[in-house]
Write a structure and sequence with these properties.
The structure is a homotetramer. The first copy, chain A, is of the alpha+beta class. Chain A has a single domain, classed as Hotdog Thioesterase (Thiol Ester Dehydrase, Chain A), CATH 3.10.129.10. Chain A has helices spanning about 5-15, 55-75, and strands at about 25-30, 35-40, 80-90, 100-105, 110-120, 130-135. Chains in contact: A-B, A-C, A-D, B-C, B-D, C-D. The interface of A and B includes residues 55, 81 and 91 of A.
């Protein structure tokens, strides 16, 4: 299988379609069925004690499977998340950005499934894992 | 089982501990093992097409189980989410606020488990369901 | 919405299509979007210490959402489970049968989503919760 | 981190503690934080159409994370599953055994989290993914 979108394509798509969060996420690497994405953590993502909030980690997992899927099928803005599971396993490092590593496990005509590990930059122990299912809109 | 925190206690706790999101959520009703919480939806919660973003629904589910648990055990700010599952079942109504209905299914010494249905205000079909597990910090 | 299958229809379908497990499960009650199902627990379902095994509870949740869905759409043997989440919250009572209470939360053309609470008979505290998604085969 | 149990230890533990299912599962390989386990598929694991049943795949995922955890902490028969999520992504090959590949992602004092990919032997596309959380009993 080949990539339908390059690294630059994915970052440009993010800027164009999701301007309200585009500066929070950056695609660092993409290859067939894999992507590496960074979340830039600022004050608004933190909870008391300096830890990164759960919704911030959810948002990173969600955008990661979305972009790794689009990398394979092209820019279909209307794909929607239908299911998510997450385990929050360790406290993220205060002040560190997050990095996600995503694998697409299934790329069907109707559903795509990916799993994600999230790391604090500078630590190789995952802070969270997630699996996300996306529903792919039918061709017109 | 009795409530350890009233409706006013919960809203005051939210304002004091989570000032960055306190104006987004409001506890509408609380009873033993149940809570009803509203999410005030604004432009920053929307995605292309006017739909409410996934992270917004995750945040509502997360705060809902947290507050319904604290209502029973008192204000322990350090409880942390350890697991989440969600199904996104329908497109939320554009421009409508969200309402969550939460049941606490288990309230143990170490773990609390709750499930949540999320509705668009004015519609009785759930837009999402979630289950969240919270780890409760040990007494000092 | 109306039922497409009665209580007797569902039990007869279970006997005909799943003879290897039909004597383990019995539909006790069905109404639109709801079902109550009993699992008859025997030695083969137990683990060391007398507790009911996880796979037995999974099987009950799985068949419960399946039958509650078929009750609404009619006997389509080819519906398949695509996703499951479960929390195992309490140790089931040794030697007691299990009872599931299922709600169908979404009944779409392609996907059905249901949630399930599982109880030991004689206790009103849930031992497990589950959510299951079924993919519904297209009409021919 | 080092292994607390060898491949032979794990298979002997399975035979001794779970005689009712021991002939269904075989640990093929173990290394720190990883295990490979085979499920021997027979008629009783099949559903109409020849596909492997959901509860069989759940049982394989469950035993896989359990044994991969025990390989690190030693034979604690009382560890219990507290949470599971699974995606069923492809129809298993009729008549083929299953193989699981398990990673332990967190090994805490209280909770262990592992993720699992399940394959039909002879095919490198996963048929299912799972994440399981085990509660580890306190030291006496």
């Amino acid at each position: 299988m080949q990539l339908a979108m390059t690294l630059d394509d994915l970052n440009a798509f993010l800027d164009a379609q999701f301007p309200q969060v585009a500066n929070e996420f950056e695609v660092m690497d993409v290859s067939p069925m894999h992507a590496t994405i960074r979340a830039n953590i600022g004050d608004k993502h933190l909870r008391p004690g300096g830890t990164v909030s759960g919704p911030t980690m959810f948002a990173l997992a969600d955008v990661s499977v979305y972009l790794a899927t689009l990398a394979m099928i092209g820019p279909k803005a209307l794909a929607v998340t239908t299911n998510c599971s997450m385990d929050f396993m360790r406290k993220p490092i205060a002040g560190a950005n997050l990095r996600s590593e995503t694998r697409i496990l299934k790329l069907g005509k109707v559903l795509a499934v990916g799993d994600v590990l999230i790391f604090s930059e500078g630590d190789d122990r995952p802070v969270a894992r997630a699996a996300m299912t996306y529903s792919i809109p039918p061709e017109r």
